[in-house]
Design brief:
- The protein is α/β, with parallel strands linked by helices.
- It has a single domain, classed as TIM Barrel (Alpha-Beta Barrel).
- 36% of the residues lie in helices and 13% in strands.
- It contains eight helices and eight strands.
- The chain has an eight-stranded parallel β-sheet with strand order 3-2-1-8-7-6-5-4.
- Helix 1 links the parallel strand 1 and strand 2.
- The longest helix has 20 residues.
- It is globular.
- The chain starts with a strand and ends with a helix.
Length: 261
């Protein structure tokens, strides 16, 4: 099971530098977090980085805000899916994690419109569980899709463990409910404070060892992406960063190799 590193974990640094650290640490690939830099939006440059550093791009996360295209979230998702289809020359599947609008009519309209069109690009688009009460780029203050029941009919899902912790719900129950839909995992820890913390795995209160053991012993078809915040990784000190991202990789691989029970 590939373990990859999200470049969003170290967003204050340049993309090439982050990619190099992930390759040096031994990750199986990267997840590109698209942002307000053209470097994160151009297939030729992204393919160049994969060739230069010797590990593939296995996920492409649409911008959390507008990105350089300055489009609405629906059209941005569709363009991101089309971009993902041009990465890697089709040699490896590139997953697109997608942030949904609130449950009810908003997500129903979205799933029949932009989500369907994005999935038509030929790449998996895996809808992410959100932190409770945070619909973010779609509308502030409206209830978000944080319960597994909110995503029951949406198809492929990205399970974000920090979002589970921020929502105050049970990780193992969430995994059980969504197991057949999960196509991508964003792994990080949480102290269960209600904030979206994205801590180093093993440095919080989530049962990540149990979760990883069950995931590794299941038929899960996707990757595990370390999606963290810069400060727990030792930013801005390169020696601390490389040590901690390597430690996070070892923790994850060890957890996936454990057997259920």
């Amino acid at each position: 099971m590939p373990v990859i590193f999200s470049t969003g974990s170290l967003w204050p640094f340049g993309l090439d530098r982050i990619y190099g650290w992930a390759a040096e640490a031994g990750y199986d690939g990267v997840e590109i977090m698209m942002d307000d830099r053209w470097d994160t939006h151009q297939a030729a440059y992204l393919n160049h980085l994969a060739e230069k550093h010797g590990i593939p791009i296995l996920a492409l996360h649409p911008p959390l805000r507008e990105g350089v295209w300055r489009l609405g979230p629906g059209e941005t998702l569709v363009r991101a899916a089309r971009l993902a289809a041009r990465i890697g020359g089709g040699e490896a599947e590139v997953v697109v994690p997608a942030h949904p609008p609130p449950p009810g009519r908003p997500i129903q309209r979205w799933s029949q419109g932009p989500l369907r069109e994005a999935r038509g690009a030929g790449v998996p688009v895996a809808v992410e569980n959100m932190p409770k009460g945070s619909a973010r780029i779609f509308s502030v203050g409206r209830k978000s899709c944080y319960l597994p029941e909110h995503l029951a009919d949406i198809g492929d899902v990205t399970l974000d463990t920090s979002h589970v912790g921020a929502s105050g719900i049970d990780l193992m129950r969430t995994f059980e409910k969504l197991e057949d839909q999960i196509h991508h995992v964003h792994l990080s820890d949480s102290n269960l404070t209600g904030r979206d913390e994205h801590r180093l795995p093993g440095r919080g209160k989530l049962p990540l060892k149990e979760f990883l053991a069950d995931l590794g012993d299941s038929d899960y078809p996707g990757t595990v992406s370390l999606e963290l915040k810069p400060w727990p990784l030792g930013t801005p000190h390169p020696k601390d960063i490389t040590k901690r991202i390597r430690g996070a990789l070892e923790y994850t691989r060890e957890g996936l190799g454990a057997k259920r029970g």
